[in-house]
Amino acid sequence: MNILKKAFIFYCLFGAAYLSIQCKGDKKEDKMLDTKTETKSSVMISKEDFGLTSDNTKVDKFILKNDNGMEVSIITYGGIITSLKVPNKKKVVEDVVLGFDSLEQYLNPEYIKNCPFFGALIGRYGNRIAKGEFSMDGIDYTLATNDGKNHLHGGAKGFDKVVWSAVETISDSISASLVLNYMSKDLEEGYPGNLNTLVTYTLTNDNVLEVKYEATTDKKTIVNLTQHSYFNLSGDFSKPILDHEITINADKFIPVDATLIPTGELKDVSNTPFDFRISKAIGQDINAKDEQLKRGLGYDHCWVLNNQNEGMRLASTAYHSESGRLLEVFSDQPGIQLYTGNFLKGTLPSKQGGTYNFRTGFCLETQHYPDAPNQKGFPSVVLNPGDKYETKTIFKFSTK
């Protein structure tokens, strides 16, 4: 093992230790942070070079693969899931997430301008903050504004545009993990505090992809992390996702104003296009004459998940009948954002040739509510020194 690799592994392990120390009274051991490799496992991890950033920082791609042919490719730039291959009902394995083939495409300023956030880790704050401003303990903070007058998904250079350190692990003979670490410095994109973040991707042999988020800070701050993969369960990115059948375990959703900032209301989904409590196709009501749909050019809203005191529970499902693929999303978060690719305009190249057109992918982003720092009635997103931010999302794939 060369010196650079030793230093690299030490850096990530130091981050894990830092998080453990910062967590008050937390004595549980997290197996996903174990760096011991079990060679007997049939779940595999491989590593490839993926290129260099503009400042010559090396970017790696890690490929996690299980016995069923499910395969997840993750790059250290942005923690991006570049592909996610799962079998259909005929056991044909196909990629079901939008993305690019090369690092150059992820770095292309013209592509970034369209803000797709394909497959990326989002932070420090997923979703929008009004006018890029919030106050805490009498101090006003100004964030980068990258969505008109608003702050979106961490700003101009959020967690989706930085290079994360990585450590790969295989454990328990049935799972493989990739632990990503990033230290966001005080006032980066305007956020207070040095925020040390770990994100662990774990693939299991039962076709589960688990995403665990952890963070600590040395100064009071706000945190809301999420994952921004665009799914198309058909495996054909030339087709729209309107035939996908969705459920969302939510009795209420969050209406937005013309700039997609919450109005502060939590509205009952009954008798609205936002009722997904019983499975229905995305396209069934997406073009209804509804002011909220008009504002988002379709669905681009956060739902208030039911049973918030129960922790991890089923938040949403997506089913594509032709392929037979079923996606179940489990979360311990209070909300989930359904976004239906309304800003895809056919300007971005597809991995399958051609371009990504209008509504050819959908996102299910588990999260706290948008603009929570400015909405007194929303659950708090404040993280204090000595406390630990910890949340988990599970994407489970099967066929029927």
Notes on the protein architecture:
The protein is mainly β and 400 residues long. It folds into two domains: 3-231, Distorted Sandwich (Beta-galactosidase, Chain A, domain 5), CATH 2.70.98.10; 245-374, Beta-galactosidase, Chain A, domain 5, CATH 2.70.98.10. It is 9% helix and 38% strand. The chain contains four helices and 29 strands. The chain has helices spanning 3-22, 103-107, 109-113, 291-296, and strands at 44-52, 58-65, 71-75, 81-87, 93-95, 120-122, 128-129, 133-136, 139-142, 151-152, 165-171, 175-184, 195-204, 208-217, 221-222, 226-228, 245-248, 250-254, 267-268, 280-281, 300-305, 313-320, 325-331, 335-339, 348-349, 355-356, 363-367, 382-383, 389-399. The strands form eight sheets. It has a nine-stranded antiparallel beta sheet, with helices on one face. A hairpin with a 5-residue loop joins strand 4 (81-87) and strand 5. The radius of gyration is 20 Å and the shape is globular. Mean pLDDT is 91; it is low at 1-40. Keywords: Calcium, Carbohydrate metabolism, Isomerase.
